[in-house]
Amino acid sequence: MKSRFRIVMLCAFVLVFAALPAFAAGTVLKIGQGAEPVELDPQNITDNPSEEVCHNIYEGLVGFDVKDDKLVVAPRLADTWEVTPDGKTWTFHLKKGVVFHSGAPFDAAAVKKNFDRLIGGNYKRTSLFKPILSEVKVVDPQTVQFVLSQSFGPFIHTMCHTAGLVIDPTLIDAKAEIKKNPSGTGPFKFVSWQKGDNITLMAFDKYREGKPKVDTAVFMTIPDDNARTMQLETGELDIAERIATFEVERLKSDTNIKLTIQPGMRVMYVAINALHPILKDPNVRRAFNYAVDRDAICKSIMKGFARPIDSPMAFAVNGYAPVKGYAYDPARAKALLAESGWKDSDGDKILDKDGKKLEVTFWSPSGRYPMDYKVAEAIQAYLKAVGADVKLSTMDWAAFLSESARKPDENKSQMLLMGWSPSTGDADWVLRPMFHTNQWVPGGNNRSFYSNAEADKFIDIGMVENDPAKRIEAYTKAQEIIVGEAAWITLYVLDNVNGRRANIEGLIESPLELLFIKNVVKK
Amino acid sequence: MGRFILRRFAMLIPVLVGVSLTAFLILHLAPGDPARLMAGVEASQEDVDMLRHKFGLDRPLPVQYAMFVKGLVTGELMSLRFESPAMEIILPKLKNTLILACASIVVAVVLGVTAGVLSATHRKSWIDYAATILSLFGISMPVFWWGLLLMLLFSVKLMWLPSGGMGTFRHIILPAVVLGTASTGIIARMTRSSMLDVLRQDYITTAAAKGLTRRLVVNRHALRNALIPTVTVVGLQFGQLLAGAVLTETVFTWPGIGRLLVTSILARDLPVVQAALVIIALLFVFVNLAVDILYAVLDPRIRYNG
């Protein structure tokens, strides 16, 4: 029996060790991501981790530089560009001598092939370009023209989007599985993908700005915040993304680690259903805004890693205007509610009007955004303090998205805690989807069913206007109207907190929650 | 024995139909639209509808179930999230979880049986008390907390072992110990009590009266008989480890099927969840069958005839 038992145990050992894979060695830069990328076809992704890896493999004609925490449109594969006075034709002059990882040359035909694929296909980002882009023309090998169906003010910002990254045309011709075997002109070449564990990239020696200083980059999937932080502390990771705020103080005392705390692009807000019998009154919405102490939430719950904001768009968004909002003033909130006829007639501390209580439901995700449910609880308490009975409930993200995207007559949402980060970095991609009348869910993303003809007019001007000054003016007016009517309880901009080992230099951190590693030096 | 195994295999069919149907119905009845989730927050209704049609999510439920079964049998089942064959995603993760579960069971059997035997043979001594306390400690320790604690000590403070990932032998030590901790306690408790039962039997007294050494009596006569209930527990524990490795896999970033299941449920990647559940059920049945067969190996009196 003993020998049989030993054989069983030996088999188990052999199974364990034989199956352990060999691990790559060499000089590597290891980056810990909080979620696994879904795929690496830039035209078919909507998740942040995939976008980040793609931005290190591919490049677009233009991209965002980060200056003083602001996004600035800058040349990438195009040197210069111009637009015709009618705003319908954009001409890009391309860089010479650029090659894809496969060795194929980069030229205007490659750009045309990419955008023809995008607008002619059924990709997740097709709808970003299809409604506006009529045709892409090759003028000569170094010149490409984008013909739009109408003037589109945010076009150059949209070109900076991940969907505008240029895929190696040989892959498109070969109908290759781009999502698994990507190739671009970017600083790193794709090597391998161990699903659920890591994506390995290798420095591209023919990169147009010179070969990157690190030979290998490994994007590791480490969903657990604690584990990611610990691996940074032990040196198993060189860079850890999205450090949990409660870890920051501890990490600050570690001389081997450097932290970057930067305002991001994501504004957290409470969408208020403007069709709801109680909430359609702007005075009630304004009262709710005055009732919530955003400074206290940022300080106590967000531990200082969020910044109160009045505009519905983050400071770094092109078109942001510092509009006048609602400073914490519970007395003013009560006065506004009284003005609208709400009073506590039965002494139960809940206001009522015409026999109806001031009762609203409030949906919050739990774990989707940092401290989301805690923040929702605080808002519930603040609103209760001014006489509103807020029923808070949570659901998982899939259910939350579906339930809040129902048609107006089927939609049961009244107040929703959400966040929005415009991936084009432009005001158009905040104001149009969030507030335009023709963008009500389920067709668009306007979950508060907000509608104001004047705001729509300014949003439309911003969309078609190409003069940056006129766009800013239109967006400022739109923001004033939207904030004035308290379409949302606008809360704060989340900070992005990333950690890196002290020997890592040259990392570019975008407010769009993307890391660029082309200039990284590991000392 | 052959007919016994065949009969057990035949029982697999209703089990698998039951598991796949239950998983399918629960997942489809749960609120949340996979197409909307895949399309992302910024997507338009047009994008959502396009994806819903692309993956057949707009077809009637019986048709979707038939598509799932066909996909599972032919191996053409596609993940909604990764748009790749579901088996390509599941099988490598399953292999990783099996590695972790095997390593954990090795840890649990070696430590658990040793502790159980020592505890029983040194009844009411400090060894017994220590083993009992440690067993209870192992059973009651929350995996998440225990994992972080060991990681803090061995990875962050002492820097002896990596805190996560998969690659070398060193990577598996901490997750295997953490995952095997509860099973160690259970196996130790079971071995102790069945050893105590066996040590009271007459044949043990006879063996000792024949003049055999204490070691021979324990190892050759008592342990073999005491191990039968332990083997049952080991079999059940192995099944538990397969399904219950989620927390350990999360803490130690071990790319296994538990973590895949959680992320796939949250992402409403229905084909992956359904297929993974069917595979886990299949494994559970196989492990239990293996345990039944092992009884016959351990105890010659047990025979499966007809």
Task: Characterise the protein shown here.
The complex is a heterodimer of chains A (523) and B (306). Chain A is of the alpha+beta class and 523 residues long. Chain A is 30% helix and 25% strand. Chain A is built from 16 helices and 23 strands. In chain A, the strands form 6 sheets. In chain A, strands 1, 8, 9, 10, 11, 12, 13, 16, 17, 18 and 19 form an 11-stranded mixed sheet that branches. A 4-stranded antiparallel sheet of chain A has the order 4-5-7-6, covered by helices on one side. In chain A, strand 2 (62-67) and strand 3 form a beta hairpin. In chain A, helix 14 (428-435) packs antiparallel against helix 15 and helix 15 packs antiparallel against helix 16 (468-484). The model of chain A is unreliable at 15-25 (pLDDT under 50). Chain B is flat, with a radius of gyration of 24 Å. With 306 residues, chain B is mostly helical. Chain B has 13 helices and no strands. At the A-B interface, helix 1, helix 7 and helix 13 of A face helix 2, helix 3, helix 5, helix 7 and helix 8 of B.
Low-confidence stretches of chain B: none
Termini separation of chain B (Å)? 7 Å
**Estimated share of beta-strand residues of chain A:** 15-25%
Rg on CA atoms of chain A, Å:
26 Å
The gist of it:
Chain A is α+β, with helices and mostly antiparallel strands and 523 residues long.
List its traits.
heterodimer; A: 523 residues; 11-stranded mixed β-sheet; 4-stranded antiparallel β-sheet; 16 helices; B: 306 residues; mainly alpha; 0% strand; flat
